Structure formats: structure tokens, C-alpha cells
């Protein structure tokens, strides 16, 4: 797969214990989710995601990150933070399949902010419920390594799995 002209590409560099795990390269979909792509790109360019973790990993399902609270080593508040604003849902026909990038949210469909997830398997039960805004171009091996992390009862990896996100347009 190659990026479409004009489609931004996000690269998530993943580390744990200061050891590089590799990169997840994501092609973003501004054609179907322009506000989600803009939000993600804007946050990434500000360095918002740098030093956050994949704070929720569920084998056979997905890896989730993007919570600013995860910068704090106290894991009690991981999964509850955001950027201080919400993005209105942009449900679209892109399926939730292995490698799909989608926006996490609370019960309110319009409550997405900064947290996102990458599907490690097909999850069509999420279609038309969550906003798909990109897909993995390369680095599914890194996604699989992240989802294989030993985790606590809240599916939070026991060792910090941190990210740095860069954007190329």
C-alpha cells in the first residue's frame, strides 16, 4: 500500500525501557474522516502523543493509546485523559479489520478526543460505531509485539510501552 497524494502519514515510534521496538506507519484517511485526521495530525505536530503509552492492550482485539494521563507512571488514571476537546463522530464505510486505526471514545459517539486504537484482528462489530481514520501501512509486527505485552487486570502493560508520533505530508 502506498499513501495517496495529499494524505498525511503518521509514524509511531515505539519503545519500552528505552529500547526501540520499531515503527508503525499509518496512512490517514482525510477523505472519510477529515476532522479526526486534522485533530490527530494537529496533536501529533504539537508533541501531544510523545511520551504517552499504549495503556490498553487486548490480545485478539486491539491496542489503545493517546491518553496524556499515561505520561504519569501512576497507572490509576490511565485511560481517562484527553486533550480538553471532543471531535464529532465521522462514522464511515471503512471496516474495522486487522490494521485499522480508529478513534476511541466514551459512550457518547461525539466524545472522541486523543485516544485511538489499532485493531489486531478484524472487529466488524465496531463498524459504524467508531470512526475509522487510517490504517497500518507497515509495522503490524510492532503492533503484534505491543499486544503481546504482559499486562495487569486493566489490560495495561506492566512495562511502559511508549510512543513518539511524527507526521509527514
TrEMBL record:
Protein name stated in the entry: Peptidyl-prolyl cis-trans isomerase
GO biological process: protein folding
InterPro entries attached to this UniProt entry: Cyclophilin-like_dom_sf, Cyclophilin-type_PPIase, Cyclophilin-type_PPIase_CS, Cyclophilin-type_PPIase_dom, Cyclophilin_A-like
Superkingdom assignment: Bacteria
Coiled coil: none
Function: PPIases accelerate the folding of proteins. It catalyzes the cis-trans isomerization of proline imidic peptide bonds in oligopeptides.
Sorted UniProt keywords: Isomerase, Rotamase
Record EC number: 5.2.1.8
Assigned protein family: Belongs to the cyclophilin-type PPIase family.
Pfam families listed in its UniProt record: Pro_isomerase
Catalysed reaction equations from the record: [protein]-peptidylproline (omega=180) = [protein]-peptidylproline (omega=0)
Enzymatic class: isomerase
PROSITE patterns membership: CSA_PPIASE_1, CSA_PPIASE_2
Domain PPIase cyclophilin-type: 11-164
GO MF: peptidyl-prolyl cis-trans isomerase activity
Amino acid at each position: 500500500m502506498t499513501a495517496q497524494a495529499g494524505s498525511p502519514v503518521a509514524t509511531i515510534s515505539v519503545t519500552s525501557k528505552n529500547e526501540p521496538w520499531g515503527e508503525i506507519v499509518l496512512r490517514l484517511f482525510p477523505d472519510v474522516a477529515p476532522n479526526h485526521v486534522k485533530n490527530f495530525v494537529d496533536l501529533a505536530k504539537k508533541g501531544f502523543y510523545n511520551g504517552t503509552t499504549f495503556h490498553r492492550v487486548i490480545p485478539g482485539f486491539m491496542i489503545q493509546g493517546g491518553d496524556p494521563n499515561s505520561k504519569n507512571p501512576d497507572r490509576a488514571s490511565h485511560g481517562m485523559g484527553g486533550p480538553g476537546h471532543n471531535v464529532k463522530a465521522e462514522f464511515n464505510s471503512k471496516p474495522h479489520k486487522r490494521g485499522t486505526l480508529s478513534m476511541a471514545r466514551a459512550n457518547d459517539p461525539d466524545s472522541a478526543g486523543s485516544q485511538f486504537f489499532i485493531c489486531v484482528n478484524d472487529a466488524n462489530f465496531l463498524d459504524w460505531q467508531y470512526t475509522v481514520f487510517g490504517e497500518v501501512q507497515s509495522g503490524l509486527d510492532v503492533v503484534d509485539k505491543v499486544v503481546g505485552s504482559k499486562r495487569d487486570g486493566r489490560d495495561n502493560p506492566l512495562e511502559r510501552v511508549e510512543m513518539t508520533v511524527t507526521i509527514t505530508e
